Amino acid sequence: MAESTSAGARFRGALKAEQPLQIVGTINAYAARLAQRVGFRAIYLSGGGVAAGSLGLPDLGISTLDDVLTDVRRITDVCDLPLLVDVDTGFGPSAFNVARTVKSLIKFGAAALHIEDQVGAKRCGHRPNKELVSTEEMVDRVKAAVDAKTDREFVVIARTDALAVEGVQAAVDRACACVEAGADMIFPEAITELDMYRRFADAVKVPILANITEFGKTPLFTTGELASAHVAMVLYPLSAWRAMNAAGLAVYQTIRKEGSQKSALDRMQTRDELYDYLDYHAFERKLDALFAKQEK
């Protein structure tokens, strides 16, 4: 697409081009390059991923806006796929904080965000004992996010965690209130049955996002199953990162136990493969040309 097309417009374009739109989590800038090479049309930065991957902390509302923006900038600097960002509860108690979050994300090249209805001391959406703010407070968060947009195409997705706390009808009611407040799309978290997605989609009349995270409350539905339930977007927030962690741990254990990495080489990306995904040789050719010019 043309460079003048905003990130938000690219996200909306991706959603039109592919339904359900697969959105994969990219824990860092290099992962974003991998996802782009594979052919995905949109990528995601998980709040839990920032907390664990960048800070080594649990997903309990400890991360700050600046922590997230650091990873956003690094990803958008090297990858032009539209990036959806998890902003937890908005990074602050007031509408001013939410507005600052939205404006900063747009400035740093993000395409979309999702904001949730938990209290500030939030928990992972698939953990027990979640606490919610009132519907009115969540509506205020959504209104603040929508009003703060400096790119009208930037996408505001309202996430509700109400299913596990208040039941499906209350969650649907909250979602409808968020749409009335201006939310572009809805993210019902920790869904346990396929029919629940249909119920949300029929009620809100805007695109629905399904979070297909591993080892959580939601079954690992296929894209075909989700399409039949009128789901527009499918999120895989930390799938690759979980695999990276398991592989990395196995290599550490091998080196520690065997005193060498030799037996682990077949599980590693080669130097040539790394250079290919980084476009390393193109950079190197520019450096060679610069040195040759200086020698003349």
What does this structure look like?
With 296 residues, the protein is an alpha/beta fold. It has helices at residues 7-17, 29-38, 47-55, 65-78, 95-107, 135-147, 162-166, 168-180, 194-204, 223-228, 239-258, 271-278, 280-295, and strands spanning 21-25, 42-45, 83-86, 112-116, 155-160, 185-188, 209-211, 233-236. Helix 2 crosses helix 4 and helix 5 (95-107) packs parallel to helix 6 (135-147). The radius of gyration is 21 Å and the shape is globular. The protein starts with 6 loop residues before the first helix and ends with a helix.
As a whole number of angstroms, the C-alpha radius of gyration is: 21 Å
Average pLDDT, rounded to a whole number, is 95
Biggest sheet: strand arrangement: 6-5-4-3-2-1-8-7
SSE order, as H and E? HEHEHHEHEHEHHEHEHEHHH
Instruction: Name the helicity range.
Output: 40-55%
Main beta sheet: 8 strands, parallel
Query: Which spans of ≥5 residues are poorly predicted at pLDDT below 50?
Result: none
What is the overall number of helices? 13
End-to-end C-alpha gap: 39 Å
Shape label: globular
Structural class, please?
alpha/beta
In total, the number of strands is: 8
User: Approximately how much beta-strand content do the residues carry?
Assistant: 5-15%
Per-chain topology:
Elements: H1 7-17, E1 21-25, H2 29-38, E2 42-45, H3 47-55, H4 65-78, E3 83-86, H5 95-107, E4 112-116, H6 135-147, E5 155-160, H7 162-166, H8 168-180, E6 185-188, H9 194-204, E7 209-211, H10 223-228, E8 233-236, H11 239-258, H12 271-278, H13 280-295
Parallel strand pairs: 1-2, 1-8, 2-3, 3-4, 4-5, 5-6, 7-8
Helix pairs in contact: 2-4, 5-6, 8-9
